[in-house]
Amino acid sequence: KKIITLDRGRPVSWPAQQVTLTGHTDAVRSVAFSPDGKRIVSGSYDRTVRIWDAETGQAIVRPLNGHKDYVSCIAFSPDGKYVVSGSLDRTIRIWEAETGRAMGLFNGHTDWINSVAFSPSGKYVISGSYDKTIRMWNAETGQAMAKPFSGHTSCVTSVAFSPDGNHIVSGSGDKTIRIWGAETGQAVAGPFNGHTNWVTSVAFSPDSKYVVSGSYDKTIRIWNVGTGQAVAGPFGGHTMRVSSVAFSPGGKQVVSGSNDNTIKIWDIETGQSVAGPFDGHTGRVHSVAFSPDA
Length: 294
Description:
The chain has strands at residues 3-8, 17-22, 28-33, 39-44, 49-53, 71-76, 82-87, 91-96, 102-107, 113-118, 124-129, 134-138, 156-161, 167-172, 177-181, 187-192, 199-204, 210-215, 219-224, 230-236, 242-247, 253-258, 263-267, 273-278. The protein is mainly beta.
């Protein structure tokens, strides 16, 4: 529960090599690669953010301290210069990745922060919270850019920008997925219905046309953003909740992490597991990500 495992290799031979990053003193809740794939950022229940060298597994800077409760979510900026973190202390923080220097503190949510992401331009940050809302912030000033996006009837568990920057996707404890206009904050598609339990994780495909979702119902689904229809799935195979999902850079595969302690790679056309289960973890897998060169 306190380690990060990095698997390398082609899907036919995963894992060809494995690096374990150790240092956190409590469960690791969220991980992300830098855009160049050379660094990894992690957020933990030990209330710290850490930045690692992806090749050596060594910490690059001291632990980033400031949050007063669990760090629940993290993300790199598109240029790799900054990291954003969200916490159960209801705040969002911006850090300089090279030095670990605290750059900003955003306040506004009235409950835990579950998910954060930078816009493709790096100018904005979005956040999803247990307060059932999504907020957009100016990444430089920390000012809220619009009224909270409202519509979900339960906590917002996951948010992401589309790669083209036009839309935001959200997943919720209300079992649905919604698409929002990034400029207007208005719902433009959804709710997408199909999951039978909380939607825990959502992500756009590289071409912005599809969304992948993972759920407490143990399945993964692929949705067409334009029609709201499920175009693939449900992919079944995990024996417990699916906690995290992500598209591969090529858009042909998705990775999933689960409370069953395993990671799987799926072909989105066939719905078949093409790699895994990777079963080296001894506790729940909270977060998964592809490296940019995968």
